[in-house]
Write a structure and sequence with these properties.
Two copies of one chain form a homodimer.
Chain A (H helix, E strand, L loop, with lengths): L1 H7 L4 H22 L2 H8 L3 H8 L2 H12 L12 H9 L4 H20 L1 H28 L13 H14 L7 H15 L3
Chain lengths: ~200, ~200
Amino acid sequence: METATTRRTRITPEREAELYEAVLDLLREVGYDALTMDAVAARTRSSKATLYRQWGSKPELIAKALRHDKPTSLEDIDTGTLRGDIHAMMARSDDCQMERDTALMRGLFRAIHDNPELHQALRNLLIEPELTGLNDLLRRAVERGEVAADNPALEFVVHMMVGGFAARDLIEDRPVDRAFLAAYIDAVILPALGV
Amino acid sequence: METATTRRTRITPEREAELYEAVLDLLREVGYDALTMDAVAARTRSSKATLYRQWGSKPELIAKALRHDKPTSLEDIDTGTLRGDIHAMMARSDDCQMERDTALMRGLFRAIHDNPELHQALRNLLIEPELTGLNDLLRRAVERGEVAADNPALEFVVHMMVGGFAARDLIEDRPVDRAFLAAYIDAVILPALGV
């Protein structure tokens, strides 16, 4: 971990944020396969050596850029009710960002399955932490007595959430926005949990 | 429509089924972008002229192949209860076919958004008929008094269904199978509908 810390001090947080944004812009523009470390280096005016030293690999760089893009950690959400927590969690992005997120998801969906390394990096850096945060939030709701501990929908909350995003995009061909998510949470997620 | 009928008589149902299967095999192997009419012609030992005369375009051919792959039309499902109908609807494919379907979905997800023509063909031939069938099935449940006519989850059933498939694949990295779908229907879809 010491080397990792040493490495981190070589780049300012502002520069890091700038670089992650450039990576996500490129990802939206050209997709995962066509995104090369050369392109990232050119776009961000950094050397490829620096990119590899700092991030190790393309999947890791992309997974970290995606993680950085999440405006709020789930750990910071604790409103005192499940309804409040879930609405806060689903509304972490504004409407414009949700549309950009959906565009990213589309490109990643296929790439993830063609690239086990990318899938692993996303799993470690993004999916697992989110699932842990979600499970903490649900555990608190069970402890408060809002949801029965044996409610079978508890293990499907992430499926319901993904469905809201994917079907809005794929079937309805409309962007996900806060109004849609708020209606979806109240009509689907909370009733399935018996709230 | 007369010319369409005339065209259809030029090919036997067996030959048509064989051709659709070859198209889906190719789609799984190489993805939408790399699937050419030349490749379909070679694989099925037909002439490109025949393919274009019979199907008009690549998006139409692919959408028809996907529609043909659905083993049961939603119109044939009417068990008398919503629970029975939804379980029958979600279990139209066997486990092996569900895994193949998911592989297809992955490749199509990105292609759909890069190819408006493909999206339109899928919408006309696959998505709209499925949505109509689903709405008929839900309307009957409302008429029987199983679901309140004003239940807000009625408009999100397709989102819940897509979520089951997409998140199982994307987050859990496990294939969708009948056991998972049966549990998901009972834990999520029916409770959200108040059944």
